[in-house]
What we know:
- By secondary structure, the protein is an alpha+beta fold.
- Helix content is about 25%, strand content about 25%.
- The chain has helices at about 25-35, 40-50, 80-85, 95-100, 135-140; strands at about 5-10, 15-20, 55, 80, 90-95, 105-115, 120-125, 130-135.
- A hairpin with a 2-residue loop joins strand 1 and strand 2.
- It is globular and about 45 Å long.
Amino acid sequence: MGTRSYIAKQIGDDQYLTIFCQLNGSPEETGATLIKCYDTPEKIDALLALGDLYYLREKLSPDSGRHDFNAPQPGVTVAYQRDGRYSDWAATIKTFEDLGDGDQDGVEYVYIYDTNGQWLYMPTGDQEAVLRNLKDDLENDTVQ
């Protein structure tokens, strides 16, 4: 539903190229889609190039025909810049501290594709929260 998240790729020491995702940000939804469909640096770069998202789906690009906020194609990600014609919604660079402080955007989960090629995640707002392996937690039903 309205669970907000950050999706990020580690690009340096304490630097993360980050987009905001407004809907369906739980590990069982956005997290599972990231594991299943966005598993290479190239796919993640293409995802981040869209900028902030309304919601994430299995496909990045629509088929020919109409695809926008009012008429999204099934299974296709909806992005603010491309599909809503909004400007200034590009990916931004954040620090780990910025990511953990999701209060400013109402973010509940952070997903990070790290330099080892794995998806990590954590809930925001909990000072004791640590990054966990997303795939392992989904497979073992131990999502935080």
